Amino acid sequence: MFDESKDILWLAIAISVIGVSGFFSYLLLHTAHLVRESKRTVEDVNGKLKRVDPALDAITKALEEASVAVTSLRENVIEPIASIGGVIKSFSSIKGALGRFGKMTSGDNSQ
């Protein structure tokens, strides 16, 4: 069957070419499967994002409205109360100063 070593060499080359082409065919097939699965995954994720997006928009809107309400509350309630607290502290410090002054004057009368 094999008269010369060249025949064996050509047979080995042919088997190698068939093996390499089989490997590349296998690689191409699995790459195609990977691309198909990637496409399905992207479509699935896009569908889920379309469902989640309105909920996120509603949450964002609610948080913005809450922020406006808190800002309004701070400006209309907390800041006036804080200024009243400052006035009360001023009166307290005046009262304390008058109290010390009164003790000083009453101390002078007792001598």
Mind explaining what this structure looks like?
- The structure is a single chain.
- The chain is mainly alpha-helical and 111 residues long.
- The protein is 95% helix and 0% strand.
- The chain is built from one helix and no strands.
- The longest helix has 106 residues, at 5-110.
- It is rod-shaped, with a radius of gyration of 44 Å.
- It starts with a helix and ends with a helix.
- The model has no long low-confidence stretch (mean pLDDT 84).
Please indicate the percent range of residues in DSSP E strands (runs of 2 or more): under 5%
**How many whole angstroms does the radius of gyration measure?**
44 Å
Largest sheet: none
Structural class from helices and strands? mainly alpha
Q: So how many helices?
A: 1
Could you state the oligomeric state of the chains shown?
A: single chain
- Helix and strand sequence: H
Range of helix content = over 70%
According to DSSP, the number of beta strands is 0
Mean pLDDT: 84
What keywords describe this structure?
single chain, 111 residues, mainly alpha, 95% helix
List the helices and strands and how they pair.
Elements: H1 5-110
